[in-house]
């Protein structure tokens, strides 16, 4: 968000976008997983990213099952944890996790209006995106993109939305069956 132009320039200079790279890695992994003699984790798996997710997931399940009272960063309903966000907002925050689930740790006195503002803006983007998806509302989807701090341009937002809807038409019939 803070280095948008530099990041966009870097993306333009790349031969392939992140999605294309991930797709190639997934295809290679599926090919490798068909080999019965494969007994070790393929090295290419580390290139995809998220290779430590399984360890985090198992640790989280263990904390719940074994009632460990461990700290984990998870997504929970805000319920007043962050006083500047709505109670029904989902927030990713440090929680104590045990057999009762995830209990958010108190978070007091965030005295940074910039961070608060960015969090509210991104949450507004998420809410508009969900509403657009549920209702198949083109204008709501466009508004979501315009709210997002990484977009910042009406023409680019509209073109991206049009391209996205066309490319994923079979998965988004609510935008077309009116």
From TrEMBL:
Keywords, sorted A to Z: Glycosidase, Hydrolase, Manganese, Metal-binding, NAD
Protein name as it appears in the record: Glycosyl hydrolase family 4 C-terminal domain-containing protein
Organism: marine sediment metagenome
Cofactor(s) listed: NAD(+)
Keyword Aminoacyl-tRNA synthetase: no
InterPro entries: Glyco_hydro_4, Glyco_hydro_4_C, Lactate_DH/Glyco_Ohase_4_C
Gene Ontology terms describing biological process: carbohydrate metabolic process
Residue ranges constituting the Glycosyl hydrolase family 4 C-terminal domain according to the UniProt record: 3-151
Organism classification: unclassified sequences, metagenomes, ecological metagenomes
GO molecular function, one term: metal ion binding
């Amino acid at each position: 968000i803070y280095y948008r132009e530099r990041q966009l320039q870097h993306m333009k200079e790349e031969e392939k976008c992140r999605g294309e790279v991930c797709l190639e890695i997934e295809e290679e992994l599926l090919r490798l997983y068909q080999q019965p003699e494969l007994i070790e984790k393929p090295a290419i798996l580390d290139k995809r990213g998220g290779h430590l997710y399984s360890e985090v997931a198992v640790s989280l399940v263990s904390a719940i099952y074994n009632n460990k009272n461990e700290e984990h960063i998870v997504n929970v309903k805000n319920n007043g944890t962050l006083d500047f966000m709505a109670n029904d907002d989902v927030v990713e925050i440090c929680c104590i996790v045990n057999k009762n689930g995830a209990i958010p740790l108190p978070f007091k006195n965030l005295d940074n209006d910039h961070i608060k503002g960015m969090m509210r803006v991104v949450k507004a983007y998420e809410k508009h995106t969900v509403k657009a998806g549920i209702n198949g509302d083109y204008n709501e989807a466009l508004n979501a993109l315009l709210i997002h701090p990484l977009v910042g341009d009406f023409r680019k937002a509209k073109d991206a939305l049009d391209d996205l809807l066309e490319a994923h038409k079979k998965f988004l019939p609510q935008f077309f069956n009116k």
